[in-house]
Write a structure and sequence with these properties.
single chain, mainly alpha, 2 domains, two-stranded antiparallel sheet, two-stranded antiparallel ribbon
Amino acid sequence: MKDLRLFNEALLGKWLWRFLNEKGNLWREVVAIKYGTTNFGWYPSRSNGSYGCSLWRYISEGWESFFRHFSFEVGDGTTISFWHNQWNQEGLLIDLFPSLFALAQDREASVVDYREQGTGSSVWRPIFVRDSFADNDTLVRFFSKLSETNPDGWVYI
């Protein structure tokens, strides 16, 4: 006998997966218009309406546990959140460096917003609201983690 709760979570996760991957489909556009999206259009917004029973509201409740199990391919970096999407191997930068996220000037920045392309090389340039940090070790680990990230294959515009 199947574990129906686990089976149901898998089916709901499939709808979230389809929401991420079927950006041109009519059903996805209808859901995005009706309920909205966040984070560069990747995440479905939660239904805030108090009327009736919303199927999409029920599906989107599983988003928090679902999205941590996949990562993003950076591409040109314009549609990937620097802090909120998993684009490196270690995890979300908001979880790895919460104290630096609290000091970030733009908490909704894309990956390309913090990347400066020069002649033949690129450099990470996150902007924080102040220059002094209580824990310099955290800052060193942060830039070390960024330097480990391989931007080969990124397309800069």
